[in-house]
Amino acid sequence: MSVNEIDEQGLGPQARRSEATKRALLDAALADMEATGEASIRITKILQESGVTNGSLYHHFGSREGLVQAAIAERFLGSVTKGLAVFAHRVGEVGSTEQLFEVFRDELVRIGSPDVQTQRIHRMTALAAALPRADLLERIIADQGRYFDGAADSLARLQEHGFIRFDVDVRAFAAWFLGLSLSRLLSDIDPQLNPDNEWSEYTFRALVAILTPAPSAH
User: Where is the HTH tetR-type domain (predicted)?
Assistant: First the structure.
């Protein structure tokens, strides 16, 4: 195999084909789950939609349940992973506490967008589906932990520069903030609330109170 056949992820042609097959199956399962729910997922329909053989499905996922669990796990964390990448990039450019708070202001706007609202519903339903499945719940907890670690790494660098309080547990803060973004669903579905105003403003005030460094003693 030549160097030119290796992609940037270190995968050769056969490995790329295998990943493409797995992705096609997962995308078909996600599309069906989105359209009609988990219970309606049928192996024959998935194979038709993905153009993949029955043997490949069982090779990659072991069973229908394995495919369903993989789709649920991706539904839960896929959007969070993308959001974290954008957040980490912006945080990496922060040069002051004030700039950090502007990043959080923008993040609160993003959290309120229609696309993220839909993702929030998907994540809540995915979590509900995972609760009675011990293996899937363990997988989601592990993936969630990696999100917390990634967010904490970004915030820890700001902490080292004195842009946020030194006594803040940045991993616990990441968990708290993600929990807040999920809880916004309760405001989203209440017609008497305007979460873009009340929820965002209260959340921003809490962020400022938690993260603002203590005044210098000098």
Answer: 19-79
CA nearest neighbour of 84 among 155, 30, 183: 155
* Residue 162 Ramachandran class (φ > 0 left, ψ -120 to 50 alpha, else beta): left
* Helix-helix angle 13-36:43-50, to 10 degrees: 130
SS (HEC) of 16-38: HHHHHHHHHHHHHHHHHHHHHCH
Class of domain 70-218: mainly alpha
* pTM (predicted TM-score): 0.76
Q: State both tokens at 59.
A: 């090779």
Closest to 178 (Cα-Cα) out of 70, 77, 75: 77
The pLDDT tens digits of the residues spanning 39-57 come to: 878 889 999 988 888 898 8
Helix (H) or strand (E) holding 191, with range, is none
Which residue type does 216 have? S
Q: Who contacts 97 (Cβ-Cβ below 8 Å, separation ≥6)?
A: 163, 164, 211, 212, 213
Indicate the residue type of 4: N
- In the chain, the percentage of residues whose pLDDT exceeds 70 is 92
Q: 1-62 sits in which CATH class? A: mainly alpha
pLDDT, tens digit, 9 for 90 and up, residues 96-118:
999 999 999 998 988 888 888 88
Please state, in angstroms and rounded to a whole number, the distance separating the CA atoms of residues 67 and 77.
16
5 Cβ partners below 8 Å, 6+ apart? 12, 13
| pLDDT band (50, 70, 90) for residue 216 | low
Residue 108 structure tokens:
């609160």
